[in-house]
């Protein structure tokens, strides 16, 4: 089991920052940023087009404020903004509950290639893109999570546009196997996130990026809401909190980014 010391802000500080962020006007750079798409009844951004997030068994009754309400919900593990545990593509990898807690609080890295992608569903992130990021921003920080911005998140919610089709083979950007291996070989990265449906490109049939990352016990974040974000290339923190499913191959995740000075 890996051990690391991490310094977390107090609960009161977190609550204050959430409140301050909520008061900021639209389009204003926030110190605390939610990088998750909202779940809603009928959400269909799941790999299997027949699966979706559902609300059911809604019950109401008398309560102290006039009424109480309870609901049930169901969802696939890999739907909406979610985390892939290494176990998803590696039978000896960490399951969802096995991911060390300190790996869910990390240095953020924002690799924005949206201008190069420009809507190209066949785009692959290469080692050269990652090296170019380092040349411009310095070496990857240790204990980091890389978020790759393909400029794809604004398509979320329209399955035809987001997947570039209603059935496989799909066409959306992803990582090359070589880029995934470069990330692993750096020894600095806990996880990789993308603003599309998968870390592998839509046309992939071998899922090599998944394979490389999961063998090294790196987790993936998929369907990350990077549309309209003001994240810098580096200098921010990430808190990655998936639902704790024992034995899970993945699950819904809340991802928070906060910039330097957010809790000062």
Task: Please tag this protein with its features.
7-stranded mixed beta barrel; disordered N terminus; globular; alpha/beta; two-stranded antiparallel ribbon
Q: Can you tell me about this structure?
A:
- The chain is α/β, with parallel strands linked by helices and about 260 residues long.
- Helix content is about 20%, strand content about 25%.
- It has helices at about 10-25, 115, 125-135, 160-165, 175-185, 210-215, and strands spanning about 30-35, 55-60, 70-75, 80-85, 105-110, 125, 145-150, 175, 190-195, 220, 235-240, 250-260.
- A 7-stranded mixed beta barrel has the order 4-10-9-7-5-11-12. It has a two-stranded antiparallel sheet with strand order 2-3.
- Helix 5 runs parallel beside helix 6 (about 210-215).
- The two termini are about 30 Å apart.
- Residues about 1-30 have low confidence and may be disordered.
How much helix, percentage-wise, in residues? Answer: 10-25%
Largest sheet: 7 strands, mixed, barrel
The rounded Rg comes to 19 Å
Report how far apart the termini are.
Answer: 32 Å
β-strand number = 12
What proportion strand?
25-35%
* Order of strands in the sheet with most strands: 4-10-9-7-5-11-12
Structural class: alpha/beta
User: Could you say which overall geometry the principal axes of the C-alpha atoms support?
Assistant: globular
H and E order: HEEEEEHEHEHEHEHEEE
Unreliable stretches covering 5 or more consecutive residues:
1-28
For the residues shown, what is the average pLDDT? 88
């Amino acid at each position: 089991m890996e051990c690391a010391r991490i310094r977390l802000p107090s609960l009161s500080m977190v609550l204050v920052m959430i409140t301050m962020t909520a008061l900021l006007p639209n389009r204003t750079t926030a110190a605390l940023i939610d990088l998750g798409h909202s779940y809603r009844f009928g959400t269909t951004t799941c790999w299997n087009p027949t699966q979706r997030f559902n609300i059911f068994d809604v019950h109401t009754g008398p309560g102290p404020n006039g009424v109480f309400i309870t609901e049930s919900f169901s969802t696939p593990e890999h739907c909406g903004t979610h985390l892939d545990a290494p176990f998803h593509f590696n039978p000896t990898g960490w399951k969802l509950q096995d991911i060390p807690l300190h790996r869910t609080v990390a240095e953020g890295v924002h690799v924005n290639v949206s201008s190069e992608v420009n809507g190209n569903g066949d785009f692959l992130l290469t080692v050269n893109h990652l090296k170019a990021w380092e040349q411009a921003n310095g070496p990857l920080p240790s204990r980091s999570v890389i978020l790759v911005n393909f400029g794809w998140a604004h398509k979320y919610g329209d399955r035809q546009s987001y997947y570039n089709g209603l059935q496989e083979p799909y066409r959306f950007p992803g990582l090359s196997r070589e880029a995934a291996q470069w990330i692993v070989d750096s020894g600095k990265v806990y996880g990789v996130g993308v603003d599309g449906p998968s870390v592998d490109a839509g046309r992939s049939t071998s899922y090599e990026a998944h394979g490389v990352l999961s063998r090294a016990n790196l987790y993936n974040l998929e369907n990350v809401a990077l549309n309209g974000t003001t994240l810098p290339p580096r200098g921010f923190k990430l808190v990655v909190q998936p639902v704790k499913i024992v034995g899970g191959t993945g699950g819904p995740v809340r991802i928070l980014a906060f910039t330097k000075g957010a809790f000062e």
